[in-house]
Design brief:
The chain has helices at 17-28, 40-50, 64-78, 101-122, 148-167, 186-191, 194-203, 212-223; strands spanning 8-12, 32-37, 54-58, 83-86, 131-135, 174-180, 234-237. The protein has 244 residues and is an alpha/beta fold. Bound molecules: nicotinamide-adenine-dinucleotide.
Length: 244
């Protein structure tokens, strides 16, 4: 498919997992993709996998001046942005009673503040037809033991999209949330004990974890004109986990 021919995209957290698979898919569909991540060595290895239609930009999404540098580079190199995937995110466990201010700050700074200012600083580069995709999570709509802070951060991301759909009236720019269920990325497999993975599989109607290529397919749909009448929506890619 060539739905994204000539489009310029930027994906935060694009050097691994769901972000990297999304970069791969957008490139397959014709886009040029900037991937943003904190570690230069990880970015270098991802861009060498992705090929000449990808460029790595080192930045921490919680740092305003880093984001300014990223969008100045995009402006200089390509002049505008058609697709923005605000995907960088972190999750950690902490049960109520053990939540520290650092745990809260880490998660909300990256997942909420990082998402907010990534989008706000990208906006001047976007135009009519632009598509913004935020990575949410099934946990934003569920209660999950020892995951309240992460879950609340993803509920916040979901509401940012609802409210921004209003704020973007008249611009022709759409904003939607792609919410994965448990998805087989290195990060998640390292975080979850095997027994928790088994329990999740039993709770998922399709009886398996997601593959990052499956979330990437939905990102490509939301990025493309096939979803042109969608804004403020949340699309779950979760094997039915949060739907039943
Ligand atoms: P991942 O760790 O591979 O991806 C997260 C990426 O964000 C990494 O590349 C990381 O370096 C980057 N990142 C983190 N903090 C950053 C910062 N301050 N600045 C710039 N980049 C930063 O894990 P993943 O599973 O691919 O997760 C991607 C997104 O999907 C996250 O938002 C996560 O919350 C969400 N998600 C994942 C799952 C899952 O099961 N894998 C489920 C629901 C939602």
């Amino acid at each position: 498919m060539n739905r994204l021919n000539g489009k310029i995209a930027l994906i935060t957290g694009g050097a691994s997992g769901i972000g990297l698979a999304s970069a791969q898919r957008l490139i397959e569909e014709g886009a040029f993709v900037f991937i943003v991540g904190r570690r230069q060595d990880v970015l270098d290895s991802a861009t060498s996998t992705l090929g000449h239609n990808a460029q790595g930009l080192q930045a921490d999404v919680t740092k305003s001046e880093n984001l300014d540098r990223v969008f100045e580079t995009v402006q200089k190199e390509k002049g505008h942005l058609d697709i923005l995937v605000a995907n960088a995110g972190v999750g950690e466990f902490a049960r109520l009673g053990q939540i520290t201010p650092e745990h809260y700050d880490d998660i909300f700074d990256i997942n909420v503040k990082g998402t907010l200012f990534t989008v706000q600083k990208a906006l001047p580069l976007m135009q009519n037809g632009g598509s913004i995709i935020l990575t949410g999570s099934t946990v934003g709509s569920m209660g999950t033991p020892a995951m309240s802070v992460y879950s609340a951060s993803k509920a916040a991301v979901r509401n940012l999209a609802r409210s921004w759909a209003h704020d973007l009236r008249g611009t022709g720019i759409r904003v939607n949330v792609m919410s994965p269920g448990p998805t087989q990325t290195d990060k998640v497999m390292a975080l979850l004990p095997a027994e928790a993975v088994g329990e999740m599989k039993r709770a998922i109607p399709l009886e398996r974890l997601g593959d990052p290529r499956e979330t990437a397919a939905v990102v490509a749909f939301l990025a493309s004109d096939d979803s042109r009448f969608m804004t403020g929506s949340e699309v779950f890619v979760d094997g039915g986990y949060a739907q039943v």
